[in-house]
Amino acid sequence: MLLQKRILTIGILSLLLATGCSSQKKFSPSENKSYEEAKSREATVAAATEAGAKKYVEIKFNEGGSTLSKSAKDSLRAALSEARREGKVDEVIILSWADKNYPSKKLKSLSKKQRDLADNRNMKVKEYLKSLEDVDVNSYNMAERPSSFSKLFNTADNELKNSMLEAGLSTTADKADYSSKASHSVILIKTKQ
């Protein structure tokens, strides 16, 4: 009888342990979105840190479009204004994505149409910023990976893209529900005292 009780107790404890260890926390859609936004923000902060930028803003484009919305213009104007309060704006860095994620190592670059879209977004943001202030602007196309030259000489293009990848930037090889910068531009604003 004592043996049967021990076996029954061990069986129940094993069942409880197995059930407890195998259960995973289920996230509601809002918790998933918050997590994805946090991962996306982490990549942006990493790029800002790598570039030495004190201020940054992220804007969203309509799919297939490169026109800046009123909201995007307001965000850019506010970020530039805030940066001016901290010192002279030294440089603005623009990283623009196409409508797809950053290309995986295997893919190297997106289609010409997607690369052109990212270039057009860079150009629109640059033109708008230049209309607000005469500032040095550098832009990077996030529809293509760094070139061999960029890797060899570890250029700013290579450094920025690698810092974002290390911070969790999603690529075309990642699942669709992973944080994405597709259809976005990240604008980093560097100031000097």
Explain this structure.
- The structure is a single chain.
- This protein is α+β, with helices and mostly antiparallel strands.
- The protein has one domain (38-192): OmpA-like domain (60s Ribosomal Protein L30, Chain: A, 2-Layer Sandwich), CATH 3.30.1330.
- The protein contains six helices and four strands.
- It has helices at residues 2-22, 29-51, 70-86, 112-132, 148-152, 156-166, and strands at 55-60, 88-96, 137-141, 184-192.
- It has a four-stranded mixed β-sheet, sandwiched between helices.
- Helix 2 (29-51) packs antiparallel against helix 6 (156-166).
- Helices and strands, in order, run as HHEHEHEHHE
Shape category: globular
Helix/strand-derived category reads alpha+beta
Secondary structure: number of strands? 4
Distance between the termini: 82 Å
Rounded to the nearest angstrom, the radius of gyration is 23 Å
CATH superfamily (homologous) name = OmpA-like domain
Largest sheet: 4 strands, mixed
Q: From the coordinates shown, what is the CATH architecture?
A: 2-Layer Sandwich
Strand order of the largest sheet: 1-4-2-3
Mean pLDDT: 81
Number of helices: 6
